[in-house]
Each structure stands twice: as C-alpha cells, then as structure tokens.
Amino acid sequence: MLYPIQNSHRNKLDLSGIWDFATDPRRSLTPEDLPGEQNWRPMAAPGSWNEQYEDLFGYLGLGWYVKKTHVPQSWEGQRVFLRVGSANYFAAVYVNGVKVGEHEGGHLPFAFDITDAINWDGENLIAISVENELRPDRVPSGNMPNSSMSMFASTPPTTFDFYPFAGIHRPVVLYTTPQTFVEDLTVITDIDGTDGVVTVRAQLNAEASGAGTVKLTAGGKEVAATVLRFAGGLAVVELRVPNARFWSDTDPYLYDLTVVAEGSANSGEDAYTLKVGIRTVRVEGGQILLNGRPVKLNGFGRHEDFPASGRGLNLPLIVKDYQLMRWTGANSYRTSHYPYSEEEMQMADREGFLIIDEIPAVSLQMADEANFPERLRMCLQQTDEMIARDKNHPAVVMWCVANEPMHAGVGVGALGESDPRIEAANLPGKRFLDALVARARELDATRPVTIVTVMGGPQSWMEQCDVICMNRYWGWYTLGGQLDVARQKLAAELDQVWDRFGKPVIMTEFGADTIPGYHGHPSVMWTEEYQADYIRMHLEVAAEREFVAGMQVWNFADFAAVQSIARVGGLNHKGVFTRIRTPKMAAHVLREFWVRAAAPVRAEPVTA
Ligand code: GCU
User: Fold this and answer.
1) Domain boundaries of the chain, sorted by first residue
2) Minimal CB count within 10 Å: which of 35, 162, 277, 458?
C-alpha cells in the first residue's frame, strides 16, 4: 500500500478540508439521495466528528461526508484512485452515486480505482459513509453483554481505555498512476561490514514483463543503481552501497530509492521514490541490537489525540510532540493501540525514533470464544494491512499484534504473579495470539514480533514473543500509595520473567494518574509528586537490570478516555504532559534519566 506521491508520471489531489456532513442514525439515506436537502453541516476531514460538535460527542452511528470536486482533464488516460488514510470504523465510498468500495477497520488506509466512475467534464460528487458502532465481534470490541454492570462501567461502553472517536481521521486523496504501474515495493536492508545491502522487490499491478531501473541516491548523488527485469510483474534485485551511512536513532540517515518501470505500448513509464534507511534489528540474548549494537527503547505509549481534532491527523501536533519527546530524551514509542498515521511513520524515520507498531487488538476478551472467528479475521486483516503499509519504514523495529488480551477472571488489582492454573485455563487465547504472531512473522521475517501483556495475565501467552513486553502498574492499580513495596514486587517480577524466558524485557506501560497542578507533601496518589516518585522508582529498578531493553511510560500525554468513575473529566491523566502538552513534574524526571544518560561523557580535564 504505497503512499501516494506526485511526480512526472503520477498525480495527487488532496481532498482534505471542510466537507458537508449529516448523521443518518436510521441508515435511511441512499447515495441517490445525495446531496439532497439533508441537514448538512460543515465538518473538517481529517478529524473526529465527536470533538467538532457537542451533539455529536457521543454519536457513533452512521454519518455521511460529501464533497464535490473536479478531476483534472489532464489525468484522463491514467488510472485514478480514491484513497482514505483512515476511517473509523466501517466506511463505504461512492463516486457520482456509484459504490466504488467499502472497508472495515480503522487506522489503516484503503483505496479504490474510480476511473470508470469519473465525470471528466464537470463536478464529481464524492460521498463517504462512516460508522463506529461498538460491537463485541469488532476489533477493538465494545457493547459487551453486561458491560454496564462492571465497576468500571464506561460511557460509551468500550472494553478499552480511550475514546472511540469516529470519522475520517486521515486524508482523502485522489491519485493517478499509469495503466501499468509499480503497485508494491518491499525494501529489506542488511549490513555487510561497512557496506549496506539493499534488496528491492518491485511488484507491478499486472503480470507484465519488461525492463526498468532502480537507483539509490544520497543527497541527490547516485550511490548504487541497476537494471530491473520484470517477469510476471515481479523484479527482485540487490544493491550494494560501499561505506554506507546506516540509519539509527542517533543518526537517522535516509537515502532516496527510485524504481522506474519502463512504459509499453498501452502504458506510459512509471516511477516511484521512497525513503530508505539502511539498518538491521535483531534480538540476541537479553538485548535488542540495532546495527549490531545494543539499544534501549525508552519513551512512551501514546495516543493520536487532541482537543477539537480528536483522533484526526494533526500535523502541527506531530511536529510539536516529536520535539517534546526529544526534549525528554526519549528515542522510542509504541503506536498504542492502533497504527498511527503514515505522516507519523515518516517523522519517525526522519527524526530517529524506534517504533513498536501495533494493530488495534486492544483488550480483546479471550474468554469470549464465541467471537473468536470474527475477531481473528479482523486481527489477521489488520496485521496484513499494517505490515503492507509500514514494512519499508526503518523506524519500525517491532510488530505488536495485541495489547493486553484479557484472560478469564482478570481483575485490575491482579497481583502480577503468573498463576499456572490461569495458563492452563487460557489455551484457546494462546492459540489465537500464536496465530497472530505467526502471521506477522510469515509476512516479515526481518523484525521481532511481540504481544503486550496485562498484569496477572498468563505468562505462557508470551512464549512465542521475541521480546517480552509487559504493562505493569505496581504502585498504582496494585499497592497504590506503597511505592516501597511496589518496588520490590516490580523487581521480583522482572527477575522472574527474565529467569523464565531469557529474552529482552520492555515495560511498555507503567504510569500513575496525575491531576496537573495538584501537589502534595507527603506525595499521595494523584499528585504530581507521586507520579514523579513512581516514575523515578521504575527507572531506577530498570537501570539495575541489563535485560530491560526499554522503558515506555504510560502515557506521553493526558488523553480522552471514557466517562467512568476512574477517569476524571473523561480523561486518562497518566500523561507526563497534559492534553495540551504542558509538562508535569514527571517530565523533568525523565530528562534526569534519559537526557543526562545520553549526554556525551566529557573526559575529565587532565590535571597538570
Ligand atoms: C492498560 C491499557 C491502557 C490504559 C492503561 C490505564 O495498560 O493498555 O490502554 O490506558 O492500562 O489503565 O491507564
């Protein structure tokens, strides 16, 4: 799923902006009715509708977006596609009343060939319907039976701890390609001494044979090139870059790779260019190695979340968040709990952040086997789509195929120790998760694969993982206000997990809800002092253990959760920054550990 680009062979028209929007709670509208005299209102896309209108805050039913556009006549003769970067949760797309396709699942792009539906001599009506109904068989799930009975009953009734924002969350783009075009590229990089080795797999949209070229440039200067010979639409070549500059979090160097497919009788030439970072990532013993050297993945769990834009793409926020993460000394984050925008992945490549890329399989109820088939189908689809989209980003160093799958009888206050009885009772869940890990490995053998486990969950679920990723809340959900005891329990559990698996451990979540500006002495829970003490304790415990390969605070910033007795003002307040990005005391604690630790150690002046 290549990102749309404009070049001398391809065109692109971004339809981001203010669309017309109308709700359709009874699902009574048909494309023929559009635009008609509905109660249209202005709606920004990208953007969640929930945060743009007070009466839509809780609305998750069907909504219609419509927009009229000309298609440049110069495009006639090419293939024209309509691509949506993300629509949460189920979308259908119509052009001039003709249905061109539909897609299930948020946070991942989809595109349809709309060439035959275009009116070249006038305006075209684009209509996109979206709904985000919470259902037990969806991924993520909601509206579970008896959900209103639980102590953490939430509104809306999700099974996950973030607001189920709905709408078109990323750009809607028209783009063109020649009739025969480069449909997919897979770039795999390796290191041989000081040489970079770049394997390129180029796939055309047709089983065409023919020639082409591939070249790698550094700052416009060619460093490697070769010819392509397409057979059955496929060409695979290897480029060698002498004395290559490798990509890393400390030196995120990017080359430009351009693939050209020569034209034929019925199709013009095509070219596609993408950024390439030459790096390797692998697990060895208790370490994660980037380019053969141990690396720590220190940073955050995050959310795509901000007032007014909701989960919608917010480019100024992305730039600001990367500066703030850099300011704390972080070099990594997890795309909790869904793939983030392609623009984020491009920033991570450019800025040098190590990404754990995660599908939306958050809090899946693993005792609820009746819904396994539907959920497994969606999880496999999301794994396929995430890897197809992100496989060429050097910043993506790990795939995560589930966050906190919930076993039977889980309690938020679970005491963390794994119970063999729980492991025996949760074999169906293990089979489900093992299937997802296997799928990710089958699609990409070059990156570690993991699942993120919940406190007290079956440790056997981690057996297939290359890296042990744990969310633990010692000193918050368990032993709250008792940081000394929590410290011992955390240390004991980390050591037990290392003894059992002998694999690198990343704490993918640890955090404490903190009301910004709320102080206390003694530092009781919910105060900024408590969060600072809590995070300091965790980083100290981790620093004593070489097998801890990363510490990711939950969360980078306060974010919209759901209405419940545990979420003050409907927000999760575990951010080290507030929702509008002002730092709490804990942000300064991170700088103590991550910025000073990373600062170059200056040699002591030689005394005479
Ligand atoms: C879980 C979950 C997060 C949630 C967090 C919390 O670990 O993965 O999505 O926000 O706990 O309760 O704050």
Assistant:
1) 17-170, 182-276, 282-596
2) 35
